[in-house]
Amino acid sequence: MHQISSHLEILKQMLPKITEGGSLSNILEQCMFCAVGLGGVGLDFRGLLPSLFEEAVLNLFSKNIAAAVENFQVVLDSHRWVPLPAVGFSAIGFGEDSREDVTPPPSLMEHPPLAVFVNGVSAALNELRPCAPISLRHILAQELVMGLRVVHDSLLQYNENRMLRQNEATLFFSLCRSFMEVVVPHCATCFGRCFSGGSALIMDGKGSFDGLARLLSVSISREIPIPRSNIEATSKLENGTSRIVENGVIHDVEWKSKAALTDQEPRSDAVSSCADGKVEES
Questions:
Q1: Per-residue b/e over 56-78, b at no fewer than 16 CB within 10 Å?
Q2: How far is residue 156 from each of residues 69, 108, 146, 183, 218, measured CA to CA in Å?
Q3: Measuring CA to CA, which residue among 189, 59, 211 is closest to residue 136?
């Protein structure tokens, strides 16, 4: 019993230092094999292992999600709002039942802050897959939703604290829309590959992201029309005048009658029309 207690104490001290999910899985496998062997003499300690490894898995996943959020914030703060070439991609619906390969949507290349965050989340989930305790499914889902919520709140704060020009604001709102429509479903899909029913747990937390949803709806409703230069639009009024819009300035112009037009000085090569419809050279 003393050797087992010493072994468990060493595990408690060393497991938090493990930074790879595959290493945790290997250590757990070896400990289970040892416990089964000692079970022949009544010293099976497998029941004492879950709590130790669950704590280690939770700490590792939390650190990786926190790192993804931190990297997102760093890239967002230094991001320059310039348009990038559009990248087409085939949409991937969320759900753990789909069998296609889950890869980050290429459209995220247009938004570097989101791409950095998704890469961090993917790395965290890759470390989780080799050793994913079913008992932690809901807790780990809450950790991921919390990370998404931090990104959501960071975008709202960025919108409040930064003064963006119209073209920059358009790109920022496009990033926010991509977060809601691409990043959240993609993270849900990836989490569903680790746990059965995991996608629904993430999508259920999407209701807490209503701040960005309201911001996007307001941005659409108050969208400023793009000025049109060198474009004239005329509208005929009842009193015989027209309103000409030129370079954003409205001019009222009175329509001239045919008689007034005939009084103008003729050109050298002009032709005049007679009452009988014949044309005579001037």
A1: bbbebbbebbbebbeebbebbee
A2: 15, 19, 15, 16, 13
A3: 59
pLDDT tens digits, 179-223: 999 999 999 999 999 999 999 999 998 888 888 888 888 776 555
Residue 230 CB neighbours (<10 A): 6
> What residues pair up with 249 in beta bridges, in sequence order?
246
DSSP letters, 40-58, are GGT---GGGHHHHHHHHHH
CA distances from residue 42 to 3, 17, 35, 47, 182 in whole angstroms, order as listed:
14, 31, 10, 13, 53
pLDDT digits (tens, 9 = 90+) for 142-176: 999 999 999 999 999 999 998 889 999 999 999 99
Are 37 and 28 a contacting pair, CB within 8 Å?
Answer: no
DSSP string, 113-148: HHHHHHHHHHHHHHHHGGG--GGGHHHHHHHHHHHH
Contact predicate 79/72, CB 8 Å: no
Does residue 121 contact residue 190 with C-beta atoms inside 8 Å?
yes
